[in-house]
Amino acid sequence: MNYDIFKEYLSDDSIILEAGCYDGTNTIDLSNVFKNGHIYGFEPVDTIFQTLKDRVKNKDNITIYEMALDDVCGEKELYISSGMSDQSSSLLSPKDHLVIFPDCKFEKIQKVKTITINEFVTINNISKIDFMWLDLQGNEFKVLSQADKILPTVKAIYAEYSLTEFYNGLTLYEDFKLFMKNFGFEEVYNQTCFNYLKCGNSLFIKSKY
């Protein structure tokens, strides 16, 4: 991942929220790029969280949470991926994912804690977030729908998008773009190299920033 595009819009003391940290590879990279900032990271899969915890334990500018971001606080079932990929777990049940990636299995369900961004920033007295990195396997729309308390402070959002309904209830790319536009964000970068797999990543910047 080339982080230079983020540095065009963000200072090195940026406050970052990363959801879907997996093993911490991007988390650590972000902490090195934004050396004077802080990263709040979320990873709900218990076995993966232990790896993440071990990898970031010496990073003072990273704080991690074993929970999932969602549009409600409480507890939900997480569909755990395995086989070809253990990076596709989601709070949404798999749909087209089972057809497009048949070697990726969803044979296990795990109960996980969930929290909204609104609640997270409130209980932790966080007054601003500069950048959000969201890899939520289709749950991005729901998560951002409960982030209005902090979205006015957000300068940039990097999010995964889908061109097909990989998971039941997933918000497709064009509708997600419209949702972001309504919150004042415009797409400035679209990673199309995975479009043949019907997915990609977009960088949205606050229009007035």
List the helices and strands and how they pair.
Blueprint: H1 4-7, E1 15-19, H2 25-33, E2 38-42, H3 46-56, E3 62-65, E4 68-69, E5 74-83, H4 97-100, E6 104-115, H5 117-123, E7 131-134, H6 140-145, E8 156-162, H7 173-182, E9 185-191, E10 199-206
Structural descriptors:
209 residues; 7-stranded mixed β-sheet; alpha/beta; single chain; Rossmann fold; 7 helices
Description of the molecule:
With 209 residues, this protein is an alpha/beta fold. The protein has one domain (12-70, 114-206): 3-Layer(aba) Sandwich (Rossmann fold). Helix content is 24%, strand content 31%. The protein is built from seven helices and ten strands. It has helices spanning 4-7, 25-33, 46-56, 97-100, 117-123, 140-145, 173-182; strands at residues 15-19, 38-42, 62-65, 68-69, 74-83, 104-115, 131-134, 156-162, 185-191, 199-206. A seven-stranded mixed beta sheet has the order 3-2-1-7-8-10-9, with helices on both faces. A three-stranded mixed beta sheet has the order 4-6-5. The protein is globular and about 40 Å long. The mean pLDDT is 95.
